[in-house]
Amino acid sequence: MKKYSVDINNKVKEGEFILNENNTFVYNGVVNNFDYKYVSDNILLLRINNKNFMIKVEPDNDSEVSNTLFDVELSGNSYKVSSKSELDKLIETFSKNRSGSKIKNDILSPMPGGIVKINVKEGQSVRKGEVLLVLEAMKMENEIKALADCKIQKIMVEEKKSVEKGQLLMKLEPIIN
After folding, report:
1. What is the 3 state secondary structure string of the chain?
2. How far apart are CA 26 and CA 14, in angstroms?
3. Which of 75, 80, 158, 161 is the most buried (most CB within 10 A)?
């Protein structure tokens, strides 16, 4: 079971979406059957309660947490859809620095887990959206990505080592263009 908070067009339709393993989902208390097939990378054929939908989905790269904001086209209508899991909400909460700006200097662990892979080196410049490291928690690998263009100032962890929730993983230096 995976639980998501869904927001369509800035709260025109908001609700809790629970995805079950048996091809059912619960949206605002109503159980629905579904099946899907990708026609291409961004086009999805979706069947909900024996009704077919052709959906075009493009990720919106303006979101602070990757893969949570999408541009969705359905029957000629466009929607901005935000879908955040409980993990995404934690990452978003911990990724904001005290000033509340998008540029942050510290990467904190959103949960306890183990460092699977570190993709950067100290002194390296990275672009917004690049994967800095992979954190394994609860048997799931979570990519921690750069929220802005920055330079890696200091890496505080090592691969194959455990980390605690809120532990400092990296110090960053924002690149202001």
Report:
1. CEEEEEEECCCCEEEEEEECCCCEEEECCEEEEEEEEECCCCEEEEEECCEEEEEEEEECCCCCCCCCEEEEEECCEEEEEEEEEHHHHHHHHHHCCCCCCCCCCEEECCCCEEEEEECCCCCCEECCCCEEEEEEECCEEEEEECCCCEEEEEECCCCCCEECCCCEEEEEEECCC
2. 13
3. 80
32's tokens? 């629905």
Each residue of 122-141: pLDDT tens digit? 999 999 889 999 999 888 88
- Give me the amino acid identity at 105: N
Residue 56: Cβ-neighbour burial (10 angstroms; 0-12, 13-18, 19+): middle
User: CA nearest 158: which of 118, 105, 108?
Assistant: 118
Task: Indicate yes or no: pTM above 0.85.
Answer: no
Model confidence over 38-82: pLDDT tens digits?
888 888 898 999 999 999 888 776 555 566 778 888 888 888 887
